[in-house]
User: Fold these one by one.
Assistant:
Number 1:
Amino acid sequence: MEGETTLATELDGLLAMARELEARVDGDQGAPGAARELCAELAASVHRAVRLAGSEGNAGGRASVNGRLRSGRKAAAAARAQVRVASMQDLGPLDDGLSWRKYGQKDILGAPYPRAYFRCTHRHSQGCQATKQVQRAAADPLLFDVVYHGAHTCAQATALLAGTEQQPPAPFGQEQQSSPAAAPEGMQWPEEPFTPPSFPSSPAGCYTPGNSWCQLAGNYGYAAGGGLGADMEFDELFWNM
DNA sequence: CACATTTGACCGCT
DNA sequence: AGCGGTCAAATGTG
């Protein structure tokens, strides 16, 4: 409602591209050439949108984050982006190709499902401070909200990023993935008709480097507030394209 | 035996 | 005071 015109426009175009991409991928999964190009454009648009949202002085929905920064408050430790990507790939579990170690689970106020906290297994070995939060969507139990934050310094991440030209496991950002037939590493929900835990953390391979993901759906939930922790401050946004 | 996961408690911040 | 996040000890599994 405020001055989100630019951002809205970007997002609108992005949505359109996403649709096109979705159609392309759906119709031709053997030749992701065009899809890939669209993906690039899409990524660029997203990048721009996020940048606009993170710009100072911008009155966007997230502009307050910057203006809210108080002196002495440094949030460089964990940057989060608001990129919500819903990838419906049954074959693509939530495994990012890295090793995550669950270190806690907490029930979130207002959320019917608990939130699991994961950490890089190499945190003690290589000092990888990367962390990941996996939570289930409130209205869509089939959707998993995976929030990555922190920087991956372990060789595993480096190798992964170097081996793939894409950026599935973005350095930072909120990624909403959906795995209808695949459950995360380990999360036990109150009532789950799906596959229980027991996710052997599939090693690299299920990633399918080349075919990659691709089904953008949904909208950009900028965690619009409501009072449920809509406080997001992202100072730096890294996006490799 | 080592590693990963689980659960509870503690701490910090809002 | 409440919520979110992390740590630490215990347990289970491979």
Number 2:
Amino acid sequence: MPLKMRRNLSPKPPEPCMLTECMQVIAGAWAPNVIWSLRAGRRRFSELKADIPPVSSKVLSARLSELEERGVLSRHVRPTSPPSVEYELTELGQELIPALEAIVQVGHKLKLMRAHELDSEAAE
Amino acid sequence: MPLKMRRNLSPKPPEPCMLTECMQVIAGAWAPNVIWSLRAGRRRFSELKADIPPVSSKVLSARLSELEERGVLSRHVRPTSPPSVEYELTELGQELIPALEAIVQVGHKLKLMRAHELDSEAAE
DNA sequence: CAGGATCCACACAGATACTG
DNA sequence: CAGTATCTGTGTGGATCCTG
């Protein structure tokens, strides 16, 4: 499930829209899901991977790096015998949660609307 | 500026994450920008194209169709001599505005943080 | 366990040209 | 003006394999 989980960057030019630039923060496949999974608190790499089954290690790793670099989340390495790394949203990262929640809400409502429309059609 | 303005779909599989599904609503290159441009009210095709310079007619058209189909915006054709079409956010579409604003805010803050960090480094 | 390296496919945006 | 059709390039994610 990736073919369309692309980012929202802009390679070369004038970048007239600030929004585009800001959208980069959550750009990249699965990035929103990562943030979503971290809502409740810090999680380990494997936990995140389990939360988002279809994501591959490579991509998850890449996304985590980007999000860390962008200041959305922080990485904590714990010196245990089997390596253990935890990720956590930064304060700024937490500000993204309401945004994602709003999107989910709208998505939900639209879904309900569609279901309702289908019902109406079926009734005829 | 498009190479990375891809959508956030998911082609085939199990789709375990509701978020992913909801994100589709604003999926596709420039989709957020379109919604952003329509914040203030209805706009015509050419106005939208002017608002978002780097977008091509083809892509803008595609995005508008998708957003309409998804119930985020509505299309009004006006029977004038030169064809004139206006687009407008639906009620649900308007609910996405706060979400985008939140993202922009975070993007902004992160930008400021970065600038600050660079200053600190430069000072040394 | 956490994640880096490779190789590959393909969906998507761009450019251009055309229509009513 | 508002779009559509076609062709092409490319970034990005998936799968797999491998390591400390």
